[in-house]
Amino acid sequence: MKERALPAAPNWYCSRCSDVSIGGLLGFGAKNTIYLFDVSASSCKAAGELVGHKDLVSGFSFCQHEGQSHICVSSSTDGSICFWDTDNKVLLREQKAHQNPVTALHWSPLDKNLVVSGDEKGVVVCHWYHTGDTASFFPEPRTVFCLSCSPHSWSSVAVGYKDGMIVLIDVSKKGEVVHRLRGHDDEIHSLAWAPLANEDALCSGRPEDGTDANGAMEGEWRGCYLASGSRDQTVRIWSTARGKGVMTLKLPYLKKRGSAADPGVKERLWLSVHWPRGRQTQLVSSCFGGELVMWDLMKTGKQRWTLFGTSEGQNHSRIVFNMSSVLLQDGDRELMISTSMDREVKCWDLASLDCCWTLPTLGGFVYALAFSPVGAGNLALGVGDNMIRVWNTLTIQNQYDTRTFWQSIKSKVTALAWHPKREGCLAFGTDDGKVGIYEVFSNKPPQISSSYHRKTVYTLAWGPPLPPMSFGAAEGKSSPSLYSCAGEGVILQHDPSRLSDEASDIDKLIKDTNDIKHKLSPHTDLSWKPDGKVVAIGNEDGCIEVFQAPSLKLLCSIQQHHKIINALCWHHEHAAAPELHGLLASGSSNATVYVHDLRALTENPPESPVVLTEPYRRLSGHTAKITGMSWSPHHEALLVTASYDGTAQVWDVLQEAALANYRGHVGFLLCVDWSPTDPDVIWTGGKDFTVQEWKVSKQDFTRPPKGKKMVDLREKMKSNPKLKKKNNKKASGATPPEVNGDATAAAGGERVASAQGRQPSEEEEEVVSWTNGSVPQPAALETQRKTSTASKSRDKADSTPLASLKKKKPRSMLPLSTSMDHRPKEELLQDCVTLASIANQQAPPAGCVPGQGDHVHLGLFSDRPALRRMFEAEEEAHVEAGHYESVTYLRLWSGDLQGALQLATERGELSDHLLSIAPMAGFEAWRTAVEAFVKQLCLQEQYLKAASHLLSINKVYEAVDLLRSHKLYREAVALVKARLPADDPVLKDLFTSWAAVLEKDGHFSAAAKCHLAAGSSFDAAKVVSRKNDVSSLRTASGLAWISGEAGLARSLSLRCAKDLAAAEDWRGAQEVLSSHHSLLVHKLHFCVAELLTAALTDPKVTGRSCVSAHLWASPGDLGGVIQDRVRDVWEEEFGVTDESSDHRSVGVLREELKAVETPQSTANIPLRQVLLHASSHLTRAVLGWLDDDEGELMKELWRAVAQIRDAGHFSICAHFCRLLFPDGDVGVCSRKFLKALHHTDEGSQAAAGSLQAFVLYHRLYERWWSSADETIRSPGNQEVRVSSCSREETQVGPSVSAGDEPTQGGPSESGPGVCPETGIGASDRTDFGGGQLLCEAQAVYQAATRSMAQIQDKLATLVLQHGRAQQDQDQDRDPDQDPDQADAPTQANAGERPDEQDTLMSLSSKMSQYHKQLAELPEAVKMFPHPDVLECCLVVLHLGERSARVSSSLRQAARDLLRTHALSGPLHRAAQRFLT
User: Fold this and answer.
1) Using CA atoms, how far apart are residues 1035 and 1051, in angstroms rounded to an integer?
2) Which position has the higher pLDDT, 789 or 137?
3) In whole numbers, what is the pLDDT of the chain averaged over residues?
4) SS3 1286
5) How confident is the model at residue 1442 (pLDDT cuts 50, 70, 90)?
6) Confidence of residue 730 (pLDDT cuts 50, 70, 90)
């Protein structure tokens, strides 16, 4: 006997799955069970369950008559109808008049013995309760969605169908159709008759379809109104007297406050209607989002409805399925009960439209129960419907006060644990491995741990922190950590204050502390001792290990269980007897509970681990695995356990005695917890979607059911394997009732998991399947422990002989004539007389026509015309029953093969058999049948079979088009190549289309094959190159060379070589470029790149080594001038000299290299790419040298240096300059090929001057660094940066503050303060080529560009300030302000405009002066800039202070330049030290 319970959620998508009796007893179907509750205006109370259905409950209705109100009826999707006695909770009668799932059911409110039901095939059955008789009707060949018996005429029944049709039938006339009500165009969800038997109340309503104001025509019979709710979003009121519509109510769309509009809410609509008793002009209906509205049918206009619920949150949050009402005993107050997809049952007061109470229900297995240790009475539930519920079990007014949490969960909640000290802090674990923490008294979303388990979370526990999380925590002040154990066998420690940090695996600590080398057994459960000093961990192999915190030193190993550990629980610490503090209870899959006394081990830890093989107490009685346990917090040594045998057992541990056994659940239990406030109360949850509260003292049993019953059940199942199988027959018409939408409750036949996610053994699974019938089993939790029992069970089932299964009797082809053979004996004898009269050509009885009417069966024994008449009658019967296949065969038997084919074609029921005999009707009939069958197969997505049938009528092209249209290109190609000529253009089109699809999906190699087969080699190479990796580019270039696409081959080879060069695979790059002699110039380029890279990069510095290099690029061979080394390698390896001819001619090579573009370098380009660009210029320079073009030589050398300089690599640029000009003289570019350079044009002279300046610039810094002992700081202790100039000095780049000395290494790419290698040999010259380094023209150019940049910044700032001021002025202007006042700010601003204009004018004038100054400078100065002259001046002056080698004339020239051009900014401040 239970006290309180949260039941399973009512089934979804049923037109009538809940009802209330006149005595106030509520019943609703959930899964395959009916739950009963006594309802009142203040609360509801559980009254029991009705258990017996083997499939989902699809309908439920009470008998609404005095003296018989305790009788109810229910229907199921297996076609059964059950009558129940709710007083005694027993099944009175079961009828199976339906052959298909029942979709609608109603007990007549006028006839206490009449029950009407309808199924998905359209069959309506009347059941007579007092006699047990049934009568079947077939009013329409449509799917029944709902039906309702009239409260005013016992024989009138309204039936709503899936296609929107409503039919009124008279059951007293064999289901004769009285009216067909047409108006809806979608599913009929609900029907409700008006409570009064007249049609006068809606006289103000606007009649429809030609009716008068009363909804009836002149001289009509006064009937009663009928309301219907449909998926087409309308409620219609019908006149049943005239069969016409009276009123149409369009459903209002009520957007919920604070939430965005859900575009899919209208698609999920279920529209229920309910007509309250005695209220002819008021109608209740549901809305899109679960709202309930009361319609006033006498009102006109838009607002004809009133919303239920006077306060926010009272209404349902999702669609409502059922509504029913009851009058209280005083008769003045009517209550209405509603069930919804939000899994809540609500009670409404129809007078005030307020919600009286709410009953929460559950939509999945109850996996976890946990009482809060801080907030007494707060019970947390972890449920398989992806939600957590917190139930305040101590409230008096609302006994079902629950809060629901669903945010960020999105999976079954399988584990819960309250924080031991912080109120409202609840940790949860889910089926998908997620661990999170909810603050249940706030509206914040949960915190989710960033560390996910790979499989289901079994257990959560709070405990003291372990290393590494415990490091740094104060003794005794550290907050507890959260521990999670999951299906992969890992226990993670989470820091609740930083869940975003990675959780730690405690296995590492266990191994390190106990010096364990082997792999640990997967963990399945853990439990901390209440004092936090010891933790017990259960393993998959049945071993329990006890560790001492915080080091997790192994104290003992308990080797008692031999199966997976499912539950561990320590005795509480507030027991009076100290010897109980060390009790540890454990449960596993072997059904026995062991209790171990570990007090001695925990108080006096041993030196080495102890192995325990004997328990302190053994508790035997359960017949299946243990899934949960809990010690009584009020008693000493009282333990309650939950088991897969479907019971909860209370034990006296010390006496090893069973005290009480609870059997209120249907199916196995998954969790249990003892009430912290009532010593006599225990809570359990399980497979039946319920949480139940029960008292120990009120139980009738003391021990679990004996094992013999289980053995008998197994024997029965082995003898009849069909009992194990679930009826998976799916409804073909009506939407099948859902098991309240639980994500776990849809997949039938799969394994069922326990609360810990462990799978039942073979024997337990069989017992569960038998004891609970063929209920759809929820999908099993994913676990890592896979046993072989499932395969064994499957082998047993598969090996069962087919002969042992009960054969189903086939349907008769001649049901009418067969049924006539079951008449009374006298009529059968009279048939013989009639046949004898016909056979002897005597006059038959009057009205006797063999094969027709009552003598249809005689057509089988008479002549052929009689047989044909009998066939016609049988065909009509088959059509009414929907058995069109039988009609086809009857026509086939009668020789009407064409008619049989036509009928099967119209019904879409052509088969291979019919097609095989179609040629008997002629070629045209056969061809037509094949074409129809092809269309049917396409609708069934059997495209290959359809194409094969097209081939049978020689439609090859149509078959190819069919395959191609459904993306079956491979089969289409095979068909074309097998049946059509090789040059048919269809083949090329196929390959081209297939290649496009493959290319879109990223299958480039397959697409290339298609292009090659279509003769498009160019496209094949392009497709392969799209992968853009080295191997693809190499292959693509090979394809292009083979196909003669030289241009494409060259570009692809070059792309591939560049990728290989970027990876420093120089050998591979040269191999790719060796494919054709036209790529010789690129081979020369990559040769230079390899030499340059080897000379400028140091693997010790970069951390990278060359993948594949040539011997001639070894660092030992790179001494001297790099130009000389390049010429030597070209001559030795490639045969290129100044005397080469043909394709090796220098002139030809120079022309080819001109087509190669080299972009300008920036700081974002990688060094390897920069060196590749610089090597391109160096290649041009060497080719120009070979061609005696000295001007091109200097310009390209300058561009090569500029590439590295612009990328910001200062030290590499300096090294490069030393490689080009080891002697520091740009006039000598070779030591081997001695020749004086003569620069004839201005450009080459400027390039040479700029090159010389950069060489001197780097040598200046080298001299400074080599002479500096330490970084010199200014008196203000400020470090100064000096960096290299950019190609075009548009800003004051490196600044030197006043009185400061440039920092050692300032210009390097490493940033300020980083010095490159020192000790580089520098020239002893002290003038540093003052004419080139301290060039007056370059100083003028750089000062002008620097000043122009400053002016541009000032102009931009002024324009921005002016725009903002104007915008603020426009915004502040008041349109209603007095014009004089409005003009005042404008006049004030006008007073300021002259100054602003003067400033803009002066800046513009200065800008034009600078432009003019730049225009007067030679173009060569601007094209080939020098290093920053002022920066060089500062460095010279700094160096002059520390070295006497700097000539006074050079220092004076530096001062003069600073005095002339360093007029402002940081350069001016830096120069003051030397100018004052």
Assistant:
1) 13
2) 137
3) 80
4) coil
5) confident
6) very low
507 close to 492: Cβ distance less than 8 angstroms: no
> CA separation (Å) from 482 to 526, 528, 537, 914, 1461?
12, 11, 15, 68, 70
Task: Report the run of H or E that residue 2 belongs to, with start and end.
Answer: strand 2-6
Q: Is 215 left (phi over 0), alpha (psi -120 to 50) or beta?
A: left
Is the separation of the CB atoms in 74 and 105 below 8 Å? yes
Q: What angle do CA 599, 600, 605 make, to 5 degrees?
A: 110
Peptide bond into 468 cis (omega under 30): yes
**476, pLDDT greater than 60:** no
1107: helix, strand or coil: coil
935 Cβ partners below 8 Å, 6+ apart? none
Number of residues in the chain: 1476
Radius of gyration of the chain (CA): 47
Which residues on neighbouring strands pair with residue 44, listed in sequence order?
39
Q: 3-class DSSP state for residue 38?
A: strand
CB 339 within 8 A of CB 321: yes
Cα–Cα–Cα angle for 1411, 1414, 1419, rounded to 5 degrees: 135
Asked whether residue 407 carries a pLDDT value surpassing 80, the answer given is yes
**If we measure between CA atoms, which residue out of 95, 62, 100 comes closest to residue 79?**
100
For 1046-1074, the pLDDT digits (tens) are 778 788 888 888 888 888 888 888 888 88
SS3 (DSSP) at 1141: coil
For residue 1323, what are its two tokens? 């020239």
- C-alpha–C-alpha distance, residues 1202 and 1425, integer Å: 10
Rounded to 5 degrees, what are φ and ψ at 1386? -65, -40
As a whole number of angstroms, the distance between CA 993 and CA 1007 comes to 10
Q: What is the mean predicted confidence (pLDDT) over 654-672?
A: 94
Region class of 654: left (phi > 0), else alpha (psi between -120 and 50), else beta: alpha
Q: Give DSSP secondary structure letters for 125-167.
A: EEEETTT--EEEE-S-SS-EEEEEE-SS-TTEEEEEETTS-EE
- Do residues 1305 and 1279 touch, judged by C-beta distance below 8 A? no
- Residue type, position 239, single letter: S
The pLDDT value given to residue 171: 92
- Contact assessment for residue 457 and residue 483, using Cβ atoms and an 8 Å cutoff: no
- DSSP-assigned letter for residue 501: S
Give CA–CA dist 584/557, Å, rounded. Answer: 13
Amino acid sitting at position 1460:
T
Q: Each residue of 918-971: pLDDT tens digit?
A: 888 888 888 888 999 899 888 888 999 899 989 888 899 999 999 989 889 989
Pick 1088 or 348 by higher pLDDT: 348
Burial (CB count within 10 angstroms: exposed 0-12, middle 13-18, buried 19+), residue 1418: exposed
Longest C-alpha distance within the chain, in Å?
Answer: 155
Q: What is the pLDDT of residues 413-468, one digit of tens each?
A: 999 999 999 999 999 999 999 999 999 988 889 999 999 999 999 999 999 999 88
pLDDT band at 712 (very low <50, low <70, confident <90, very high): low
Angle between helices 1066-1073 and 1080-1096 (to 10 degrees): 170
| Identity at 114, one-letter amino acid code | L
pTM score above 0.70: no
> Which amino acid appears at position 571 of this protein?
H
DSSP state for residue 1131 in the 8-state scheme = I
CA distance 1104 to 1081: 28
Q: What are phi and psi of 288, to 5 degrees?
A: -60, -45
Integer Cα distance of 1158 and 1327 in angstroms: 36
What would the pLDDT profile of 734-777 be if each residue is shown by its tens digit?
Answer: 444 455 554 444 333 333 333 333 333 333 333 333 333 333 33
Confidence band for 1331, pLDDT divided at 50, 70 and 90: low
Q: How far is Cα 654 from Cα 652, in angstroms, rounded to an integer?
A: 6
Q: How many secondary structure helices (H) and strands (E) does the chain include?
A: 36, 57
Quickly count: other Cβ atoms within 10 Å of residue 746's Cβ. Answer: 14
